[in-house]
Amino acid sequence: MLLLALALASQPDQLLAGSAFETLASRTEAICPARKVRAITPGDLDEAEQRFEAQLPHRARSRLQAANTAERRCADRDGLACPTTATLETIRRIGLMARFASYICSHPAAF
């Protein structure tokens, strides 16, 4: 019982949720567990998404921008949790999640 309590206490607080975020967290835990992506803030995820998008080849970047519904879905919401999660869902939907997870693991980040 004590071990379970210690294990739970050592887990970072997770601020984001959703199936796309779970996919990202699972992939990064498998390839770079030290990054502790589950503890990423919406602001840090937004920055990572923007940097990832900027380095994509033109065709992939255009496909991501055309498919991303974050602006429309989150227009009446404050904060970054909604748009970053929506963008992450788009990244997964168009088949870029493995590439994004690798990007996060191989690039310096604030988190």
Structure in words:
The chain is mainly α. It has one domain. It contains seven helices and no strands. Helix 3 packs across helix 6. The longest helix is centred in the middle third of the chain and has 14 residues. The chain is globular. The N and C termini lie far apart (31 Å).
Topology (SSEs and partners):
Layout (H helix, E strand, L loop, with lengths): L1 H9 L8 H13 L10 H14 L2 H10 L2 H4 L7 H13 L3 H10 L5
Helix pairs in contact: 2-6, 2-7, 3-6
Task: Pick out its properties.
mainly alpha, 111 residues, disordered N terminus, 0% strand, 7 helices, globular
Poorly predicted runs of 5 or more residues: 2-10
The helical percent reads 55-70%
| Domain module count | 1
Structural class designation:
mainly alpha
Strand content: under 5%
Short description:
With 111 residues, this protein is mostly helical.
